[in-house]
Write a structure and sequence with these properties.
The chain is mainly alpha-helical. The protein is built from eight helices and no strands. It is elongated. The two termini are 53 Å apart. 8% of the residues are buried.
């Protein structure tokens, strides 16, 4: 048998199997009362739809604004107690250089806020960063690298505003957020 014979033979087999399949009733024809019928689709046509989660974004922004105000008020109160004026004063410089005397009550509150379970602690802050990133992308893990780049850009802007290297807790927070985003984009990497 030559190549043409094989091709003709295959073509005949396809036709006869197609004709046979038309004679056999499909599952749909046999059982109309069936709850669901699986029909395999083309995986390329089934793309996930991602929509930005504006409710989560708004909630996170509102919470952040409230907490930032609390922190700012705490610092202002501390500075005013010491008779320092805020106009023209670089608060970050004063804090960074340790030129601010901190009363025990304020120190305790700050320690609680940055503790392991505190609002500004590594875990809660990195979780908020990741939640915000997921909400912005509508849950699309393919955008994780863009979110990581945005977090790194924000970290650099914070360093510039601070006027030098940020405290260790900031570095740990960014590292934790990036680790979580990498795990989100590649769930098999955790296993």
């Amino acid at each position: 048998m030559n190549v043409n014979g094989v091709l003709r033979s295959t073509s005949v087999e396809r036709k006869s199997s197609t004709q046979k399949s038309k004679e056999v009733p499909t599952a749909k024809e046999e059982n109309q009362s069936s709850a669901a019928i699986y029909e395999k689709g083309d995986s390329n046509t089934q793309k996930a739809s991602y929509t930005q989660d504006t409710a989560t974004i708004d909630r996170l922004k509102a919470d952040l604004e409230k907490r930032e105000k609390q922190l700012t008020d705490l610092v202002k109160k501390m500075l005013l107690k010491q008779g320092q004026t805020l106009e023209g004063t670089n608060i970050y410089h004063l804090l960074r250089e340790g030129k601010v005397n901190i009363d025990p009550e304020t120190a305790k509150q700050a320690q609680n806020d940055i503790s392991e379970n505190g609002y500004w602690g590594v875990e809660q802050t990195s979780d908020r960063l990741v939640s915000f990133a997921k909400a912005l992308t509508g849950g699309n893990p393919e955008k994780a690298d863009e979110m990581i780049a945005a977090i790194q850009k924000g970290f650099e802007a914070a360093k510039k505003a601070w006027g030098g290297e940020l405290p260790e807790i900031c570095k740990k927070t960014i590292d934790s957020a990036i680790e979580k985003l990498n795990a989100w984009k590649s769930p098999s990497a955790k296993e």
